[in-house]
C-alpha cells in the first residue's frame, strides 16, 4: 500500500503546533519509523519543528526528550543527532 503525503498550511499558535508535532512523533515512533517507510526522507517536519521551537524557548528538557527519541531510531540518528548536540551545547552555555 502506498500513501501520498499532503501538506496544508494554516496559521496556528505554537502551542497547537507543538501538540500536533508531539502526536505525529508518537505515531512515527510507534508505527512508521519501524516500517522503513521514511528511509528516503532527508528531514521529518515534526522533529525539525520541535527542535527549532525548543531552541527558541531554550527548553533543555524538551531537547532531552527529542534526544531519547532520536537515539531509538537509526534514521533519526543520521538525520538529527549532530544538529541536536550543537543546539544543546549552545543552550547550555
Task: Note down, in words, how this protein is organized.
This protein has 93 residues and is mostly helical. It has one domain. Helices cover 71% and strands 0% of the residues. The chain is globular, with a radius of gyration of 14 Å. The chain starts with 13 loop residues before the first helix and ends with a helix. The mean pLDDT is 87.
Helix and strand topology:
Layout: H1 14-35, H2 45-57, H3 60-71, H4 74-92
Helix pairs in contact: 1-2, 2-3, 3-4
Q: What is shown here, in short?
A:
The protein has 93 residues and is mainly alpha-helical. The chain is built from four helices and no strands. The protein has one domain.
Specify the number of helices.
Answer: 4
Work out the helicity level.
Answer: over 70%
The global form is globular
* Gyration radius from CA atoms, angstroms: 14 Å
Number of strands: 0
- Content-based structural category: mainly alpha
Low-confidence stretches: none
Strand content: under 5%
- How many angstroms does the end-to-end distance come to? 47 Å
**Largest beta sheet, briefly?**
none
- Order of H and E elements: HHHH
* Count of all domains: 1
The average pLDDT score comes to 87
Amino acid at each position: 500500500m502506498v500513501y501520498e503525503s499532503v501538506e496544508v498550511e494554516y496559521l496556528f499558535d505554537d502551542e497547537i503546533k507543538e501538540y500536533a508535532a508531539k502526536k505525529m512523533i508518537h505515531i512515527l515512533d510507534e508505527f512508521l519509523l519501524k516500517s522503513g517507510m521514511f528511509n528516503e526522507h532527508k528531514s521529518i517536519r515534526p522533529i525539525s519543528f520541535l527542535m527549532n521551537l525548543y531552541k527558541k524557548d531554550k527548553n533543555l528538557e524538551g531537547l532531552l526528550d527529542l534526544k531519547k527519541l532520536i537515539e531509538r531510531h537509526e534514521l533519526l540518528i543520521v538525520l538529527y543527532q549532530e544538529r541536536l548536540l550543537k543546539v544543546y551545547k549552545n543552550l547550555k552555555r
